[in-house]
Design a protein that fits this description.
The chain has helices at residues 5-11, 29-36, 50-62, 95-102, 105-108, 121-130, 165-168, 171-175, 181-198, 202-222, and strands spanning 20-23, 43-47, 69-73, 87-94, 112-119, 133-143, 146-155. It is an alpha/beta fold. The chain has two domains: 5-158, Rossmann fold (3-Layer(aba) Sandwich); 162-228. Strand 2, helix 3 (50-62) and strand 3 form a beta-alpha-beta unit.
Length: 228
């Protein structure tokens, strides 16, 4: 079976030969793919919507994976027993909701969290740092005309970001010269310019102007490379 570019990029962050919990699995495509490819031996797939879990159940049965994928109806990480999964995927939700889901002991004792927000990635980046999660890796992936940001993290002692702008564009993305860094940064600049031109709040305009200036610096630093 084929995955979307977004889910395929997430699959590349999964540690092979280890179990996985996919929270908010929807159709169940990610755990099914990972097992069919022999990447992981088993998975827990959960969703808080009966209809979505029903779709996942159909796919699991079609692929004869009932013995390898445990389907659970429930909210967040409450579906997991302590230590049951050492890598957890939470993808396809907004950044604030993902933060709410992982704000628990299960997430803090997990070896790896793979997070992919659909909206507000900067919020999630900031929340992770403030709440004691180390961002070990980041990646950008383009899918369906949108660019998504993927975080790989775990509980630890994160260093404070050098500047607020690095919540918009993660330092890991800059360090690794992510191929989509230029396009992603440009989109953020354009969004801030729109907000700047739409507001009459002097203080807000000053903050936005400062952010735009710093983001333009990041963009200019990398626009001469082959990737941007």
């Amino acid at each position: 079976m084929k995955l979307s570019g977004r889910l395929l990029a997430i699959s590349h962050k999964v540690t092979p030969a280890a179990g996985l919990a996919d929270i908010g699995t929807d159709h169940g495509k990610l755990p099914v793919y990972l097992i069919l490819k022999g990447i992981i031996p088993f998975a827990i797939a959960s969703d808080n919507r009966i209809a979505s879990l029903g779709k996942a159940r159909v796919l699991v049965k079609k692929c004869n994976l009932e013995s390898k994928i445990n389907l659970r109806l429930g909210s967040g990480l409450a579906v997991l027993r302590h230590g049951e999964a050492n890598q957890i995927v939470v993808a396809g939700m907004g950044g604030p909701l993902i933060a709410e889901i992982i704000n628990c002991t299960q997430a803090r004792t997990c070896g790896k969290l793979i997070l992919q927000p659909m909206q507000y990635p900067a919020y999630l980046s900031r929340w992770l740092c403030v709440n004691g999660f180390d961002i070990m890796d980041e990646e950008l992936v383009e899918d369906g005309g949108r660019i998504y940001r993927i975080f790989v993290c775990r509980a630890g002692s994160p260093q404070k970001v050098r500047d607020e702008v690095f919540n918009d564009v993660g330092e890991k993305l800059i360090e690794k010269k992510d191929p989509l860094l230029g396009k992603y940064t440009y989109q953020i600049i354009e969004r801030y310019r729109y907000i700047y031109n739409s507001t009459t709040d002097i203080r807000a305009k000053a903050k936005l102007k400062d952010k735009i200036f710093k983001l333009e610096g990041i963009l200019n630093e990398y626009k001469s490379t082959d990737n941007i």
